[in-house]
Design brief:
The protein is built from 9 helices and 18 strands. By secondary structure, the protein is of the alpha/beta class. It has 2 domains: 184 residues, 3-Layer(aba) Sandwich (Carbamate kinase); 82 residues, no CATH class. The longest helix has 25 residues. 40% of the residues are buried.
């Protein structure tokens, strides 16, 4: 082993000591799980975190795979304002893809690395108690026309119950939760995975929420790599919004992360889910790879 690798091990030691026994909530985007090689690489990184005593809870959606299956089966999809309208047929596909294929693929990749992972959906153990999203008024950006949209079987989180997750984490299992939830009548809903991950992180009093994304952080100008924000505090994020430097889709993302930090999660990270060792670098090195949000 060369000196550089040994120095990296030394650099990681204080982080291993700091995070042993702490909870990390890791959210996978659909793109992260799309390719078997990428998923296998991520499973190896998660296994290393798990092996040094960090408690991991994985949350995943799978919008890309859901869209692909719908196209294969001829089930028309409607997207309004970036959100999917989940009709009855689409909900059936979401159950198959989220709680079935993707969840099992993640479990198999973790099993290959010797991790005792448990596949769940938000319906299991009433982890995600949800209600149907009420119809919302959406403005068409191209025409300026406002329409009232019923998103169908899309749910909003009413409450998170982490009793089952805590039991599994305490017993050294790694829970893998798909982004479905249900109401008191047993009606199942498709729910935004980012929202579930953030709410579970708060309820578990997680040390970190790590969002494995299609991009390796937040950029003030998406077309300019030099504008990536490496580390940002609550005050700095609020200033980005108030000053107008944060624009478009960055604003709701910053607002949701601010809410998360104010609710007690120590830090939140947006990193690339397809860049090898991005997760390890973010957790165990001083420099990191993505954007880290901290309270102060």
């Amino acid at each position: 082993m060369n000196q550089k690798k040994l120095e990296l091990l030394r650099e990681s030691l204080p982080y291993i000591q700091k995070f042993k026994g702490k909870i990390f909530v890791v959210k996978f985007s659909g793109k992260v799980t799309e390719h078997r090689e990428n998923l296998a690489s991520l499973a190896e990184e998660l296994a290393l975190l798990h092996q040094v005593g960090i408690k991991i809870c994985v949350i995943h959606g799978g919008g890309k795979q859901l869209t692909e299956l719908a196209a294969k089966l001829g089930v028309a999809q409607k997207i309004v304002g970036g959100r999917r309208v989940t009709d009855d047929d689409t909900l059936e596909l979401a159950k198959m893809i989220f709680a079935g294929k993707i969840n099992t693929d993640i479990l198999a990749a973790l099993r290959h690395r010797g991790i005792d992972a448990v596949g769940l959906s938000g319906v299991d153990g009433n982890i995600v108690h949800a209600v149907k999203r009420p119809p919302k008024e959406i403005v068409d950006k191209e025409t300026g026309v406002t329409e009232t949209v019923d998103f169908g079987n899309v749910g909003d989180v009413l409450e998170i119950n982490t009793q089952l997750l805590s039991l599994l984490l305490d017993a050294d299992y790694l829970p893998v939760v798909s982004s479905l939830g249900a109401d008191d009548d047993g009606r199942v809903f498709n729910i935004n995975a980012d929202t579930i991950a953030a709410d579970i992180a708060v309820r578990l009093r997680a040390e970190k929420l790590v969002l494995l994304s299609d991009v390796n952080g937040i950029y003030l100008d998406p077309s300019d790599p030099q504008t990536k924000i490496s580390r940002v505090t609550i005050a700095e994020a609020e200033n980005l919004i108030e000053s107008g430097r944060a624009t478009g889709g960055m604003i709701p993302k910053l607002q949701s992360l601010l809410s998360l930090l104010k609710s007690g999660v120590k830090s939140a990270h947006i990193i690339s889910g397809t860049e090898r060792n991005a997760l390890l670098s973010e957790v165990f090195t001083d420099k990191g790879t993505g954007t880290m949000f901290v309270a102060e």
